[in-house]
Amino acid sequence: MSEDSLVDTASDLRVLHRQAAPPLAVSVDFAARTHPGFVRSNNEDNFHVVRFGRYLRTLASSLQGDEPPKDYEQPAYGFAVADGMGGHAAGEIASRTAISLFVDFVLQTPDWVLGREADLLARVMERTAQRFHAVNQSLIAQARATPGMSGMGTTLSMGISMGDALIVAHVGDSRIYLYREGRLQRLTTDHTVAEERRDIDPAAARFRHVLTRAIGIPDTGGGPEVKQFRLTDGDRLLLCTDGLSDMVGDEALARELGRGRSADDTTRTLIELALAAGGRDNVTAVVADHHFPPAVV
Question: What pLDDT, in 10s, does the model give residues 90-118?
Answer without folding.
Answer: 899 999 999 999 999 998 987 777 777 88
